[in-house]
Amino acid sequence: MADAPGFDPGDPRLPERLWRKGLQWLSMGGEHTLVSSQQRKITQVNLVALLGAALALVTSLAFWSSGNAALLRGGWLHSPFAVLYPLVWLLNRQGRPFLAQWVFFLLAMAQILLNIFCVQGTALALHYYLLALAIMTPLIFPAGQWRSGAILFIVNVSLFIYMDLRGVAALPALTLIDLGTQALLREVVVGSCLILFVLLLSVSEYAAAMSEWRLQQLASSDALTGLPNRLALREAFAREVARRKRESGAMSFATADIDFFKRVNDEWGHDAGDRALCHVSSILRAQVRAGELVARTGGEEFGIILLAEPELAERAAERMCRAVEASPFEYDGKKRTITISIGLVHMDLADDERSASRRADAALYDAKHRGRNRVIVAPAEPPAQA
């Protein structure tokens, strides 16, 4: 059978794609909120529910294969939880995260307590999972639901202390397992508690890093076109000016503006105007080289940093004009040619962002005055008088 479209087992990026797909699946339900911390909690609840279902299934299979009567009974007690934990994902998907959090904890506690009081007692250290659940509460419940987290923390810690001090008798059949195997099972229980906590903490840290990255992207990107915004342009400008002073590299700055853009909005509507902006943005983005920058600075205006010698920068700006002109904008079955005008400044060492922007704006105004759809290079600044 042929592989599904887009799925190539030999693709070196496949592990990354599968990882991203897995994270998307784990974050289902996060679309119901715009608060990044709540989205992170939803992802963590989905993860622990998945781990709970997997652990219940693996434990059931392992106990059934043991041949010990007590463990066989434990396997049957674990097995229903493998199909109950998916209720947590369903609740998150329905936009009910608070209920999903409580359902997870109640299922986990029921699974642990049933097996302690009906099969294992404290002989195999299963009560350490109660301690793990207590530690999880701040990772599962958001700060606004601290009361729920505090209640579950206190209950689980109290149950753990009681069982650790008093002990709970196991089924007699469990004593038929040799002491070495019992010690190994206890180590597996304690080790799996640690692994569960580390996995949850790792996903929490990853989700927090992703949230921070998204916030940075929102702060430095134009929401409509996806281009860097004015803030990102200013930061890049400062970096390149500092680099030029160290390395004396060439740098040009351009201001581009869509010609007669108001006509698109007036004749075809603002939705068409937004799409026209995205259309021009994608063309301009494709024209710059690595290290260079195209940013939307407001309205139908763009700022462009070109890192090339003056002659090559002029050719690049001219290519931008011709590329936009050669790519008609299509909307609702209609086409129209869009053009841009560009004011270009070849910067010298005395230039800063303000002076370059002022000169580029003046050159852009000149390009508009001369008929639009052209590049006008700003004249060099006269040397300062001593």
Outline the structure in words.
It is a single chain. The chain has 2 domains: 21-220, no CATH class; 230-377, Reverse transcriptase/Diguanylate cyclase domain (Alpha-Beta Plaits). Helix content is 63%, strand content 9%. It contains 13 helices and 7 strands. A 5-stranded mixed beta sheet has the order 2-3-1-6-7, sandwiched between helices. It has a two-stranded antiparallel sheet with strand order 4-5. β4 (329-331) and β5 form a beta hairpin. The longest helix has 42 residues, at 179-220. Mean pLDDT is 87; it is low at 1-10.
Structure, briefly:
Helix content is 63%, strand content 9%.
Name some characteristics of this structure.
386 residues, alpha+beta
Strand-helix topology:
Elements (H helix, E strand, L loop, with lengths): L13 H13 L9 H29 L4 H16 L1 H8 L3 H24 L7 H13 L5 H21 L12 H42 L9 H18 L4 E7 L2 H8 L1 H18 L5 E6 L2 E6 L3 H16 L3 E3 L2 E3 L3 E7 L6 H17 L5 E3 L9
Parallel strand pairs: 6-7
Antiparallel strand pairs: 1-3, 1-6, 2-3, 4-5
